[in-house]
Structure formats: structure tokens, C-alpha cells
Amino acid sequence: MDGLFIDDISMRFDLPNGGHVQALKNVTLDIKSGELMSVLGPSGCGKTTLLNIVAGFLAPTEGRIKLNGHEVTGPHPERGMVFQQGALFEWMNVRDNVSFGPDMKGMSRKESAEKVEHLLDVVGLQDFKEKAVYELSGGMQQRVALARCLANDPDVILMDEPLGALDALTREKMQSLVLDLWKDTGKTIILITHSVEEALLLGERLLVMAPRPGRVHKEYRLPFADLGVGNDLREVKKHKEYAKTREEILAMIWNMEEEIMGRTEESA
Ligand SMILES: Nc1ncnc2c1ncn2[C@@H]1O[C@H](COP(=O)(O)OP(=O)(O)OP(=O)(O)O)[C@@H](O)[C@H]1O
């Protein structure tokens, strides 16, 4: 019963002009507790829609989501979300952002403070806890977002391009942090990214989605996330399977995008 079951999900958006968009069609995925799955695919293939349905922000038009045996019917702290940016409380300092969830749940001040101290250690922000969010760099803000999500002790962490706005070096450091958090906490993680390299490095499962309608195109099981835990990710990239899989996926997504462009030109 443990784990996340995405059971034959379809999502159709009806448009004001009478048309509709089939954002997802018959998506089924069985994600075991503690798995880290990255999701790639061309723009518009339904990645964010899928994540929003798992988060409970959207109700699918068909199918259902089950987490640890019970049906998901709306948002709940058991499913935490980390966005690309902008989801922190700008007017609060780092510590108050992280303690927000525990405080709302009515956790005692002592327990909440201990939890926050621990999480600030985990994400490397001990020296910044009194700082306001706007004083932090983009990378640090994403560390706060991770700590804030972990403070609710979710079973599943949903990440929508969490590192997409960061410079290359900070992004690399944050990729290592995500891997460490995954191994240390044993959380189930679904991570959407537009970077093929990131999807390869972080996903022990990698899902490639296709558009129109949004669906699962291909799935990989990869060794790189395990190899990357506690190790230099640049070394992992030297693995002989890495370059081969990277080229295969790049070609796959390239072809999908070419097909979309062709269809768009035909209908123009
Ligand atoms: N609320 C909505 N109303 C109408 N159409 C929508 C809505 N939300 C999403 N869509 C459409 O559903 C499809 C899937 O969108 P979604 O944002 O999930 O794709 P995505 O793969 O996350 O794209 P991107 O990589 O660009 O973020 C797109 O065609 C989008 O325009």
C-alpha cells in the first residue's frame, strides 16, 4: 500500500472559445516510497499539470491519485511543493519561513525551534537564519524553500523546476544537496526539469513525457543518482552510460519539438 499511485489520470481543460486542451491522457505511474523520479518533456506536455494534480491543486477529469493507500482529494502537508521561485514569505526571516508549517500545525515552540535548527543545518543556512528572504541569493532562497518543505515532514516532495533560475555553479551545488536530502530523508521526490543533464543526474527513474495529448513516452531506470550521492557530479557525468543516454534523450525531445513545430506550421 505504501507509495504513490497515479492511476490512469487524464486532464482536459475546456477553453472559453469552446475548444479544449487534453493536457494529460491515461497517465499511470506506480512510484515506490523513497523513489526519486525526474520528469522531462517538451513545453506543454503536461508536466506541471501532473504535479499540480498530485499536489491536489487540480482535480483530474479522469483517474485518481492514491498515496499510501488513501485517495488524494486536495492539498495536504503530506505532499510538499518546491517551486522555481517566489514561494517564500518575503517579509519573514529565514527561520520564520522554515518554522511556518510546524507553527501552523501547533507544534510546541521548543519542538519547532529544534526542528528548524536541524533543518537549517541540513541545508547549510545556520549563519543566515536572521536574514530576510530578500537579502539572500537565489540559491540560498531555494535552500530555504527546501527546508520549509521538509519542516512539514511530507511523504512526497514535488519540485517544479526548483533549480531552473540558478546560475550553473549554484545549480550544481543544489543538485548535490537534493541528492543528499533524498538519501538522508528517504522521501519520495518527483522533480520536473527542462535540463536533460539534471534529469539524468537526479532521477533514479527518469520519465520522458510527450505532448498532444500529454502522456508517458518512455521511462528509464538510471544508476547516476545513486552514484552521485556524496560524490562529485562531474565524475558521474564521465560514466559511459551517461553520454549515451543523454544523447538518446536529447534526440527524442528534439524530434518531439520538430514534430510540434511541423504541426503548428501546417495548421498556420
Ligand atoms: N488552466 C489551464 N487552462 C487551459 N489550458 C491549460 C491550463 N493549464 C495548462 N494548460 C494547457 O495544458 C497543456 C499542458 O500544460 P503544462 O503547463 O502542464 O505543461 P508543461 O509540460 O509543464 O509545460 P512547460 O514545460 O512549458 O512548463 C498546455 O497546452 C497548457 O497550455
UniProtKB/TrEMBL annotation:
This is ABC transporter ATP-binding protein. It comes from the Bacteria. SMART domains: AAA. Belongs to the ABC transporter superfamily. Gene3D superfamilies: P-loop containing nucleotide triphosphate hydrolases (3.40.50.300). It comes from Roseovarius phycicola. GO terms for molecular function: ATP binding. It holds the Pfam family ABC_tran. SUPFAM superfamilies: P-loop containing nucleoside triphosphate hydrolases (SSF52540). Keywords: ATP-binding, Cell inner membrane, Cell membrane, Membrane, Nucleotide-binding, Translocase, Transport. Residues 4-236 form the ABC transporter domain. The keyword Nucleotidyltransferase does not apply.
